[in-house]
Amino acid sequence: MSYPNEINNAIERHYSLLRNENVRIENERRSHVYENVAGYRELTAEQAQLSAQAARAALGGSAYGADAQARLSSQLQDLARRKKELLIQNGLPEDYLEPYVHCPICKDTGYTDGKPCSCSRQLLISLLYRYSNLSALDQQNFDKLDMSLYPEHIKAKNGWSVRDIMEQIVDYCKSYAEDFTADDASSLLLTGNTGTGKTFLASCIARRVMDRGYSVLYLSATDAFTILRQDTWAFKDEEDDDTFENEKAKMMTDCDLMIIDDLGTEPETAHTSSYFFRLINERLVRRKSTILTSNHTPDQLRRTYTERVVDRITSAPYTHLCTTDGVDFNVRHSLGRS
Fold first, then answer.
1. Is the terminal CB of the chain with fewer CB neighbours within 10 Å at N or C?
2. What is residue 331's predicted lDDT score, i.e. its pLDDT?
3. pLDDT for 55-71, tens place per residue?
4. Rounded distance between C-alpha atoms, residue 303 and residue 318, angstroms
5. What pairing do the DSSP bridges indicate for beta strands 115-116 and 111-112?
6. What gap in Å lies between CA 276 and CA 224, rounded to an integer?
7. Residues 305, 325: Cα–Cα separation, whole Å
8. Considering only CA atoms, which of 50, 27, 49, 31 is closest in space to residue 40?
9. Pair 229, 271: CB distance under 8 Å
10. How big is the CA angle at 164 (ends 163 and 169), to the nearest 5 degrees?
């Protein structure tokens, strides 16, 4: 999985701050004990001297004799016990001066056995939510979807009810979210009338995809095209990854899943189609997935963005879904991913 630099930097900064905080806490605790627990500082100094002797004895081997080494080891154990007793007598836990860490599993490194720790994963998900630009995600998930909003008595031309169609679409969207990977380029075009649930479904997918540790960026079409318009396009060699100069535009190409909502509502300019094509093409080249929602039909989109752009959008591996009542819409075909 690839994550934007700001997320990677935030994770590194988080664990660096944690480790600095750990040192501060350890120093404060040590100062408190030395100032308030009589005899502890002296025991620590004695322990340091004996530890140095024990190290020399271990290096000297037989020259010190087994009895001397055993005696030093016993003395060190006795000092450690006495120090713990002093802490307990003063109302402190016996491990009060042990190295402090927030996560005992990874010791605040973020990794355990070369893999991200569970604390790192939770941090990542939190950052992904913040990065995604999606709000109120606690309400935008498949469990909150009320299928009773879609009537059973209204039939489409193919004979299916609106609810039947939506149940098929929702099942597909759930599978899409569960099967999502960072490099399969499998994307969605959700079209249909206003208020039929396109944005909600896209948000549901986004939440599940982020919970699985992938990066998601949501933008309205207006915001997306504003970013693209402001960006300085750099026509460089294909091997150069810095296709975009603007950091936000780079995020649009780098994130695992890009969501552009309400396509067709943005102000149209002479360069709209070229901006859009370059973004979609760049994500396809990188095998990145994109979800587009629009109130326009594919034919209407062709009139807005040209045949070349829409063909790029609707060609495999894109899947066209529709959230209207199904007029002139073949559900089985549209839900297929072949």
1. C
2. 34
3. 887 776 555 567 777 88
4. 19
5. antiparallel
6. 9
7. 25
8. 31
9. yes
10. 95
Q: Beta partners for 320?
A: 189
| pLDDT, tens only, 158-211 | 677 778 888 888 888 999 999 998 887 788 888 887 777 888 889 999 989 988
Q: Kindly give the parts of the chain with pLDDT less than 50.
A: 232-242, 325-338
Rounded to whole angstroms, the Cα distance separating 119 from 217 reads: 23
Query: How far, in whole angstroms, is CA 335 from its chain's centroid?
Result: 28
Supply the mean pLDDT for the chain: 80
Residue 193 Ramachandran class (φ > 0 left, ψ -120 to 50 alpha, else beta): beta
